[in-house]
DNA sequence: ATTAACTTGACAATAAATGTCAAATGTAAA
DNA sequence: TTTACATTTGACATTTATTGTCAAGTTAAT
């Protein structure tokens, strides 16, 4: 654990918490972890992103609908106006 | 504008920014806005949530895939372990 | 009992979101 | 055109969320 956390530039405390889901990892940490643990980077990232998404809509009745709208928006390449 | 912003408990400056997309509204502000402007609350909320989602995955190649994973997760009622 | 690995909780540091204010700009009617 | 009010802008303050450190507490193996 010391080895891994060192490579991640954090102390073991956080790593421990991340492992047990008490803390969220950083995007950067995710990719580093993928490398270190030789896991599939894409899968990990997808997992990570999907967790962030779910976090946003947790206990929202309209969550699913929002997801679908988001999907369509992406597909149709709608750009956000500044 | 003063009227509306007063009801939202913010000054006109923010309202102005929200209207022109420089600032994000709060969830609470969204629902109040729906009432004040007599818009459909659900639609506004869905719009609001979907924007938050899109924000999370902006310029992520794996965004769409993450969305799909998130959807499935919701459908299967997977609960997040504390 | 000693040691090293891991966990926990209280707190510090940083970063992001939200808000205020005051000054600048726009707009229309007198 | 000046006055009066509405809207916008930007610089900054406040609040809230996220990420991190540290020190003390467990656990497990020897």
Description:
Two copies of one chain form a homodimer. The first copy, chain A, has helices spanning 2-8, 12-19, 27-36, 41-57, 63-75. With 82 residues, chain A is mainly α. Chain A has one domain: 434 Repressor (Amino-terminal Domain) (Orthogonal Bundle). The relative contact order of chain A is 0.08. The model of chain A has no long low-confidence stretch (mean pLDDT 92). The A-B interface holds A 21-22, 42, 45-54, 56-58, 60, 62-71, 73-75, 80-82 and B 21, 42, 45-50, 52-54, 56-58, 60, 62-71, 73-75, 80-82. The first copy, chain A, binds a DNA duplex (30 and 30 nucleotides) through residues 1-2, 10-17, 20, 22-24, 26.
- Highest CATH level, the class of chain A: Mainly Alpha
Query: Roughly how much helix do the residues of chain A carry, as a percent range?
Result: 55-70%
Intertermini distance of chain A = 44 Å
Helix count of chain A equals 5
How many DSSP-defined strands of chain A? 0
Unreliable spans of chain A: none
Strand percent estimate of chain A: under 5%
Q: What count of structural domains of chain A? A: 1
Oligomer: homodimer
Looking at the structure, the CATH topology of chain A is 434 Repressor (Amino-terminal Domain)
Query: Which chains make the largest contact?
Result: A-B, 33 and 31 residues
Q: Rg of chain A, please?
A: 16 Å
Structural class of chain A: mainly alpha
The second-level CATH architecture of chain A is Orthogonal Bundle
Largest sheet of chain A: none
Element-level helix/strand string of chain A: HHHHH
Overall body shape of chain A: elongated
């Amino acid at each position: 654990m010391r080895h891994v956390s060192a490579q991640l530039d954090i102390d073991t405390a956080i790593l421990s918490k991340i492992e047990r889901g008490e803390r969220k990892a950083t995007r950067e940490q995710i990719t580093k972890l993928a490398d270190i643990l030789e896991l599939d980077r894409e899968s990990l990232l997808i997992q990570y992103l999907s967790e962030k998404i779910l976090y946003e809509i947790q206990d929202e009745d309209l969550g699913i609908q929002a997801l679908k709208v988001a999907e369509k928006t992406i597909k149709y390449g709608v750009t956000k106006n500044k």
